[in-house]
Amino acid sequence: MKYQYVTLDGSARNFFYAEYPADPEKGSFLEVTEDLDRIRVRVDRFSTIPFYYAVHENKLYGSTKLHLLIQALPASFPRKLNYPAAIEFLRTNSMIASKTLMAGVERVPYGHELIFDKQCSQIRLHEYWRLAGDIILYDENDLIANLSETFQRVVKTYVSRVERVGMQLSGGMDSRQIIATLKKLEIPFKAFTYGVPQNIDVLIAQQLAKKFGIPHNFDEWNGAACFRNNFDDQFIMTDGMQALFHGHGIATYLQEACCVDTVIYGHFLDLFIQAHSYDSYFEKDYGLFTVKHLYEKFDGGVCSVMRGDSIEHDMLENEWHGVYAANIYSEIRKFDYMIPEKRYDALYFVHHGLRRLLPQVQAGAHSVDFFLPGLDRDYFDLSWSVPGSLRSHRELQKKLLKTICVDVLCVPVVRDNCQIEFLGSSSIDKWKSMYHQFMNKHYGGNTYMYDYYGTGLPQMVNDQLYLWIKGLVTSSALNGLGLIKQEYIDELFRHDQLHKQVSLGHYGALITLCRFVDTYID
Which of 20, 256, 273, 395 is packed most tightly, with the most Cβ within 10 A? Predict the structure, then answer.
């Protein structure tokens, strides 16, 4: 995917982009068509290229970039904050469903086409594809062989049309799946890693590059100040809807564009695990208890950056209490057609994956072609249907790697961004892994600190960004909109440092929300 621009300023024009022109639904695509009666906008199965739209004075306005849409809208269009979306952003660091932070502006949902009737100025959204709601029982050996063949075919098909191939290299499993495949296909490539030298992901990535003779570009992180330095670029590239502290590595995109034609990215290959973590609870349906358990994933759980609904009484004005819960329950009900296991997968994938992680790819795609083999139709449909019991603890991915190129497991794996796991076939590797797991569980003695790109990020933010953050938030017009209580803002900055019990993720969303309000809201 290379980011494509198109803007409708009250009219339309035909537009077509596809990673696979002969078979658009296999990958990323965007299509706009117009005839005498209607305008039709079709996004791909995952809305990898977002399309934002609004109807005003009987005309359809739209763009792949939010700021271009806002510029195209007449001055008479009311530029107001979408309060429910703002609450969701503060609590999850992402947008929920098709919302944006501007009221009256929506995003065409994944797997949908928008149809605008010119005669009556009405919009209809048609769902042409939806996530499968069931699992398929496989023979494990056949499944692994099928996964191996499909993934290799997907990668080979894509990279066969480009000359210079790159990948983003970390110490984790997804990087190894890409390395193993490129090596087996005998495709030369370059690797790119961003971070600080002492970070465990960087150290393992360097070991991988050395072992396999991979040309390796390491871009050293220059501290928390980069978030401020990159903020303007990040804000535009992610349409003002990606929290500040997710905006890292922007300079790396430009370096990649100078060296390669395509960057293969490992996002979404972890569909081998049950969403964020496997939960056997969802192998059965417990009715309303299942729904409640799903909601808890968003109420201070793995899909959240805050401690739960109780925060609303401290943070939000009374009229906004309960809005978040109602919206999330509405999202849960959209997946009623799925078995519980897939509902869990779908909620995490759609809201954390497509609306929080995908903006990182969309930002990079402004500079260089990004390829996401995990979202290729053939590979995605196969891996999505696999039972969670097979995918738990990434066991299936480990077995897959052994069939493609077992040597990639000879270098220790970074697990959960903070621990080392030894997956080699030797007895020594197995004992090393058992020892590290025992020490981590009982003593914490071998836990590697990880906060984005090294240790000490909260202190670095306090030292380098505190006054800037405080000034930006306390002076923002957001404070006068009747959403957040003034005493809550005061508490966030009561001391001469960021509040120790408030996550950086929440601060990052708050900063970005303030910038959005001050930039776009009347």
Answer: 256
Cβ-contact 396, 426 below 8 angstroms: no
Give the H or E element holding residue 173: helix 173-184
Indicate the angle between helix axes 250-259 and 225-237, nearest 10 degrees. 70
Cα separation, 121 vs 511, whole angstroms: 37
pLDDT tens, position by position, for the chain (522 residues)?
899 999 999 887 899 999 999 999 999 999 999 999 999 999 999 999 999 999 999 999 999 999 999 999 999 999 999 999 999 999 999 888 899 999 999 999 999 999 999 999 999 999 999 999 999 999 999 999 999 999 999 999 999 999 999 999 999 999 999 999 999 999 999 999 988 887 888 889 999 999 999 999 999 888 888 899 999 999 999 999 999 988 777 888 989 999 999 999 998 998 776 666 778 889 899 999 999 999 998 888 777 888 789 889 999 999 999 999 999 999 999 999 999 999 999 998 998 889 888 998 999 999 999 999 999 999 999 999 998 888 887 888 989 999 999 899 988 888 766 677 887 765 565 565 555 554 455 444 444 444 444 557 788 899 999 999 999 999 999 999 999 999 999 999 998 899 988 988 899 999 999 999 999 999
| Chain Cα centroid distance, residue 75 | 33
Query: Quick check: 457 and 200 in contact, CB under 8 A?
Result: no
Q: What is the pTM of this model?
A: 0.93
